[in-house]
Amino acid sequence: MHKISNFTGQARHGWERMTPTFGMSRPHSDMASHSLRRPHGAPPMTPPTGIDPTVNLSFNVPFSSTLGGPDVDDVLHASPGALQRWTFPEGTLEGTPVHNLPVHTSNVEALRRLCRQITESSNGRIEAVVFGSEPKSVASLQRRPQGLVTNVCITGEGETVRKMRARILNETPILLHLDTLSAYTGTDIFLLSPKLRDNDSAVVSSYGYASDNGLDQRFRVSIYGDMESAEHAKTRVLIMIDQILKRHVDAMKLELTMHTLVCGRTRKNIKLIEAATGTAIYFPPPFPRIFGYTPPGAHRRSEDEVYITGDTQEQIARAKQKLRELVMGVKIYVKDVIVNSNKIDNILLDRLDKVRKVMEMNGSYVLFPQLGSQRGLVRIQGTEVLHVERTVREIMALVRSTGFMLQAFG
């Protein structure tokens, strides 16, 4: 068992400051014999010898270009401009690829403008070019991959190139998601008519939402936007519905990295509090610091603000008190791992949903550096040593599946 620092006294006073740490990948077989005591500071870095040469860096910008808009016949109401962005203009040929929707083409064009701006403002030191192409057929796949592959190629001094990569990733609306609930922050909103109920959803009838004609009687709200905005929007719509039902709304502050720890494994602690007090508790998204993009004119949700709704203020007050009692009783155990910084970016772009499931199942928190920051330190926190160790193992298994290893120290 690796030694893990116990930060019991810091449960209510924040965390020790995370020092950006860099390191190289180490095979797992070497980790067992490596001393796992926590260093007092960041490991020293050896300054590079010689002049950083000109490099060419090519990377993918993962636009969700396979994401289609809603069925126009289902739309009862759309936010201003949303229908025009997510549907093809009249006269568009049938079979036109989804990635030619106005919203997707405008994202690519905005990326081209950003790269031109970077190139023109660098006085010839940096050149950034965007390449887009449809994926080629793969023999092992039964059908051709869909979507548009968008890559950026940057040429220039190594350190400047890496900084420009981080800037591009953090100023681009990557990782678009479709959610069934929506709200107001920098997103496109659609109110959709009820959908036909299939045989697999017959259980809906036990809740009184189905009718004899096979229609689910609930209207649907769909939102299109980047991942963080969609999460925020979903919460705002749920709160709006609570207010329509004449429920009271209040909020309390709780440090971000405490959220999943307080919730417990599979959110059991929060479920018990909600059942005991008759309230609904809404936590913010767990990764607000890793993506730098914010839609123009939009506002991010406060990362440490927890919303609580209830029929009475007394219910909300009881829920707040139970949350405070949970925080007071939390013991925090911490373990740090060092990962190749480029591989961290791969996790943030492709595997974040799986990391979130690992956190929820173990009641732990995984603290990543910001996308493109070239920092290699990942911190895992939990309320029990077993939960921290289990989270580390599952994160290690996840990153091994992408073809690299972790170097851990406790």
From TrEMBL:
Source organism phylogeny: Eukaryota, Fungi, Dikarya, Ascomycota, Pezizomycotina
Superkingdom classification of source: Eukaryota
Region (Disordered): 1-51
A single GO molecular function term of this UniProt record: RNA binding
SMART domains: KH
SUPFAM superfamilies hit by this protein: Eukaryotic type KH-domain (KH-domain type I)
Domain K Homology: residue ranges: 246-328
Protein name as it appears in the record: Unnamed protein product
